[in-house]
Amino acid sequence: MTEFSAVKESLAHQAIELPSWAFGNSGTRFKVFGQPGVPRTPEEKIADAAQVHRYTGIAPTVALHIPWDAVDDYAKLAEYAAEQGVRVGAINSNVFQDDDYRLGSVTNPDPAVRRKALDHLLACVDVMDATGSRDLKLWFSDGTNYPGQDDIRARQDRLAEALEAVYARLGDDQRFLLEYKLFEPAFYTTDLPDWGTAYAHCLKLGDKAQVVVDTGHHAPGTNIEFIVAFLLRENKLGGFDFNSRFYADDDLMVGSADPFQLFRIMYEVVRGGGYDPAAGVAFMLDQCHNIEPKIPGQIRSVLNVQEATAKALLVDADALASAQAAGDVLGANAALMDAYNTDVRPMLAELRAEQGLDPDPMAAFARSGYTERVAAERVGGRQAGWGA
Amino acid sequence: MTEFSAVKESLAHQAIELPSWAFGNSGTRFKVFGQPGVPRTPEEKIADAAQVHRYTGIAPTVALHIPWDAVDDYAKLAEYAAEQGVRVGAINSNVFQDDDYRLGSVTNPDPAVRRKALDHLLACVDVMDATGSRDLKLWFSDGTNYPGQDDIRARQDRLAEALEAVYARLGDDQRFLLEYKLFEPAFYTTDLPDWGTAYAHCLKLGDKAQVVVDTGHHAPGTNIEFIVAFLLRENKLGGFDFNSRFYADDDLMVGSADPFQLFRIMYEVVRGGGYDPAAGVAFMLDQCHNIEPKIPGQIRSVLNVQEATAKALLVDADALASAQAAGDVLGANAALMDAYNTDVRPMLAELRAEQGLDPDPMAAFARSGYTERVAAERVGGRQAGWGA
Amino acid sequence: MTEFSAVKESLAHQAIELPSWAFGNSGTRFKVFGQPGVPRTPEEKIADAAQVHRYTGIAPTVALHIPWDAVDDYAKLAEYAAEQGVRVGAINSNVFQDDDYRLGSVTNPDPAVRRKALDHLLACVDVMDATGSRDLKLWFSDGTNYPGQDDIRARQDRLAEALEAVYARLGDDQRFLLEYKLFEPAFYTTDLPDWGTAYAHCLKLGDKAQVVVDTGHHAPGTNIEFIVAFLLRENKLGGFDFNSRFYADDDLMVGSADPFQLFRIMYEVVRGGGYDPAAGVAFMLDQCHNIEPKIPGQIRSVLNVQEATAKALLVDADALASAQAAGDVLGANAALMDAYNTDVRPMLAELRAEQGLDPDPMAAFARSGYTERVAAERVGGRQAGWGA
Amino acid sequence: MTEFSAVKESLAHQAIELPSWAFGNSGTRFKVFGQPGVPRTPEEKIADAAQVHRYTGIAPTVALHIPWDAVDDYAKLAEYAAEQGVRVGAINSNVFQDDDYRLGSVTNPDPAVRRKALDHLLACVDVMDATGSRDLKLWFSDGTNYPGQDDIRARQDRLAEALEAVYARLGDDQRFLLEYKLFEPAFYTTDLPDWGTAYAHCLKLGDKAQVVVDTGHHAPGTNIEFIVAFLLRENKLGGFDFNSRFYADDDLMVGSADPFQLFRIMYEVVRGGGYDPAAGVAFMLDQCHNIEPKIPGQIRSVLNVQEATAKALLVDADALASAQAAGDVLGANAALMDAYNTDVRPMLAELRAEQGLDPDPMAAFARSGYTERVAAERVGGRQAGWGA
């Protein structure tokens, strides 16, 4: 196995992006459980996200969701973030929560609705211009619930048209990350159901269109690390929306349902060059802390990604490659498992200490009194959630 | 194939129960799209349900959901239903929408929450006493999201305790129907995840505890008709919550995703004696019309069940049995498929005509002007939905 | 709905290709059950396939599998087929049954094994030259069973190299159809696990590389008709391997597990222009008749595809399009379902009568005495199966 | 976390049963790859199994499969095992490989076939009498491939009848373990598809009928540890057939696909009292080493179970219980994960050293030269496999 000292530097520059919406309330169609101290404004979300970075040291950016994080002055919001010690990351578009989008947004049979949706996407690029964001994340809930409801192929034509228009609007240092999802909220067809569809659209558009892999958006049994390896080989992996699932798009904390899968994904990222900052892969969380407290939930998630990354970096590439070349099935598997079975927590605690961080971020945050303080301060107003 | 005339009588006495909540707004965690004319009160829901019965002739009862349909005077509500030409059916309990239920209801680690949940269930039996309902439907969203979150076995103990208390409260002509569900809203464990768990609990309690099969609550690949056949053999099939799914608990219109599966289920019902009214199997819909209009959505669903039932009744039992006994794989399959491939719509139109109904319920309802009338009348107030 | 007379001509020219191996013995890893009268030679397989065409009129070609159908003189085999009234169709390569392929064929870490596998693929093109076949079907069982066993990306490089070499060898009127499969026999990674991977490779190679959709090769919940529509839009749908599944790659008779899905697939084929012979889409069966008799199993399958096609052609495209454009969810769904619910069997019987065929192919074949004759004649020798 | 010293004793008495058939050749329907040195006789399989025990110290018994391990003198075979340092464990019945079983064994529509199958099961109890085995493992491949093929309910009646007859034959210290499986080799219905069906049959029969959980036999998404916890609560968990899967019944090495799941299962075993030898839970492997060498594959698997068990025993039960009682979602999850994230390999090496074993069983076996010796010695004869 690779020496820990050799991977320490790589770990030190890791950067995981937090989603502003993870700090707001979330839930299922059955119930959204509110929590005390939940932010009411984009600024309060950013302040909470900054706490995660403060204790982990590797969560320097916050993704925004428009219109949930809409403000009058984005430059000012970016300044506020900087004061908190973080930066604004990707801009996430939202074309699924207006009544007009009942039958779709950019693939809606009604051209007026398509135009409205496209205008929103273009406005998101305006926000990027103001915040200096590099990435526009595009997720479309578009699809149908019943066979025959709409024309599958015509919807692809409409999708392609919208993507072209957005692509044309991107600045030189901007790109979009196209997200796919098997199902939900559409229950028969989804217009971007799998990586292949997203890849095909991105390929036609060019280098500024990249695929984003949400780890909860696949059919049961899908081998996600294969997709990661394949997209890296094609230079089409733009980033990740990390989270965990046992069933569908459960949006649990990343690494909580299948930590071995997370390790395998991070191994393919490392092996394929995706961990090199120059590769431009964005490592983002996209989660719902429906029942657990949000800031600790995010800290736990960041630590889970960090631990998986440390294990992936520890893999002895030479031992692995030589076992693979020799057709030594058990030996090659063992080379990988040796790294996975290592307890990297002591090493990471040591790394944090060297960086002037508390070795135990969860405990340090708990001791800080932040939770109690915001619960007391954030009284009145409307707690942030998916609806606002 | 059996002659249609021979099955006509069976079809004439079919009874499908409608869920009051299908007439209110519903959606996903991403968005609930409101629709014009949606009911604002339990009475308006019942009035809408009565329309479905008026045009199909086989939807004589309406299930209530407490507290969504809570009223001061249930006897009066029952009278109102009678005036509309329908009756109150099963009472559906709801122990998932109070903030207290964040970590469960009857399986919550906190005894006070368990007590509160149990009290609600007992109060539902009071409603049954007032409405004359036979069935209490018990669905628990209880479960956990993370490994270790709570003790799986202790939660079973708590569940058993609550079920015993409810069972003890049931009157002589009352029973409860215990529902199971693979996942959602809980994403790691669900305390009643499968038919086996529901069956085991019901078996210990006695004849007044029966299992209800929601057709959308299974793992991918589950053979639902096998479960139906098995529960009928054990005298433990209390009823159905019908709906369709392509992926998870999509709650689409029954028969819209896999009409052949619905036929196979109805065939096992018929073959196992479950279609005989004396068997006490409740045929209920439980659906969400997220994007389609609700009353027509319910009519369509009732017709889908009726068509599947007609086909199931048409199966030539003798031809089937003799091919099965002979080990004639293709012959036995053909005997079943012959009925499935039959177009039963003309026969059912004829049946309706004989009963004084319009042969085409969808068209007749559309022509009636009801949709336009309620859209105009039901202005102001708050539309019914899952939250109220 | 479209008039039947209008679709009759389309139905008359339908062509479904039969797999020679469907007439041999097959089974699971647990047991292969032999059947009396099973062919022992490629010629006997072709003779059996010709029976299917004789009674259905729409199964004019037989796919060969090399080396299972290896003969010394392929031109002579093609002549034999012509005498039986059928033609040789696609050539199916087999690089999974030699001991050398334990760790893969064209993606094996050992270059010597890769070379051997490639040589076989090139030899299959030689067979095509001799038989006049247009299509080479490429299925690779290549993959790994354990994480770390081999390098995912390196295997893609090796795959690409092999595909390029085969592509370069194709004649002007030849093409290859690249098959993908989620899993089996590899249980961790498969080198061509989904349509996206096959598509990406084909796209780089050119027009003579097309994707083939085996209806049993997807993850649970995958919307196959979406893939069909997408590939047709991209001019990359080369053909189908039809069969049915409830669970994995069950290889049951097409249309037996989910006839509605088959209809939806055929509808997208028709809608996307794929039913036009000029589109070059190959409609092939790929099935295992493990427990049912093989020739009747193939006849039943051909009829199932024919019935689904008839229904797809009956869809009233104008009614559907106008309901879709109007956002009429139930109306659009009804337009599709109206065709599906139609019993097309009488119409197809009529079509057969007009073509001089028996209206009931299953009964006619049963009456013919062929089964009894070959059971008596084919004594001695070794029955064909997957191993030979 | 619990101190390692406290769990050492528990680990020392662990006992994992090996399947004789894991040492023979296996594969998929596509190909069985033979390996040099594979046993040709039951004795050679036992000798190989004894190697696994020799290096791990916790694999003292070997399960037999009848007729694959049929011998004239079972008492003598038991003696041979004792000489090798192991004992004969469970007897596995096989009613799926005779031609008669094409349409089922104990559920076959033909009473003569049912009788034959039952006779085999009873003969297996004779073998138990001779070997002193406690457990009869019953797995039935029975089911159907096509809707309508046979009567689901009648097959349950036949199954119940056979189970009763076997149960009646059991001696005082004997029991049977009833296995369930979602699918394969049957592809439409399986007569024992899930734990609920097996449980219901066992419950009626009595204490000597117990359910066995094969970890590869569930629908996607099934929470296996829930089933384990439930069956333990009901005193109906007879044992495990351990293996791993990514997709279906892949039969990979246990712990190789989802080591976290294996840990969760072992945690529920420990928590529910199933690790106490008095509970009578049999911990058996049931795997196929299709491409990797068999003895090392078994050693690796035994070690994987041992590591998961060590982690499960290390869980701090008090910390976990108090976090659960407090509704501390993240704290409770962390208590579990703390144990899982521990690297137990050094502790287990220490334990082995104390027991006089080599700390590294894989390396020690590799060094032993056994593999080379048997490859040289076992020449001629027919290698064992599923067919013999």
Oligomer: homotetramer
Please list the strands of the largest sheet of chain A in the order they lie side by side: 1-2-3-4-6-8-9-10
CATH class of chain A: Alpha Beta
Largest interface: A-C, 60 and 60 residues
Share of residues in strands of chain A: 5-15%
Low-confidence stretches of chain A: none
Main sheet properties of chain A: 8 strands, parallel
Average pLDDT confidence of chain A is: 97
End-to-end CA span of chain A: 48 Å
CATH superfamily of chain A: Divalent-metal-dependent TIM barrel enzymes
**CATH topology description of chain A:** TIM Barrel
SSE class of chain A = alpha/beta
Helix content of chain A: 40-55%
Compute the number of helices of chain A.
14
Rg of chain A (C-alpha, Å): 21 Å
Q: What attributes does this structure have?
A:
homotetramer, 388 residues, alpha/beta, TIM Barrel, eight-stranded parallel beta sheet, 11% strand, isomerase (chains A, B, C, D), metal-binding (chains A, B, C, D)
What does this structure look like?
- Four copies of one chain form a homotetramer.
- In chain A, helix 2 links the parallel strand 1 (17-19) and strand 2.
- The longest helix of chain A is centred in the N-terminal third of the chain and has 21 residues, at 111-131.
- Chain A starts with a helix and ends in an 11-residue tail after the last helix.
- Chain A has helices at residues 4-12, 42-56, 74-84, 111-131, 152-169, 195-205, 224-233, 259-271, 294-314, 317-325, 329-340, 345-354, 361-368, 370-377; strands at residues 17-19, 61-65, 87-92, 135-138, 143-144, 175-179, 189-190, 209-214, 237-242, 282-285.
- Chain A has one domain (4-377): TIM Barrel (Alpha-Beta Barrel), CATH 3.20.20.
- In chain A, the strands form two sheets. An eight-stranded parallel beta sheet of chain A has the order 1-2-3-4-6-8-9-10. A two-stranded antiparallel sheet of chain A has the order 5-7.
- With 388 residues, the first copy, chain A, is an alpha/beta fold.
- At the A-C interface, helix 5, strand 7, helix 6, helix 7 and helix 8 of A face helix 5, strand 9, helix 6, helix 7 and helix 8 of C.
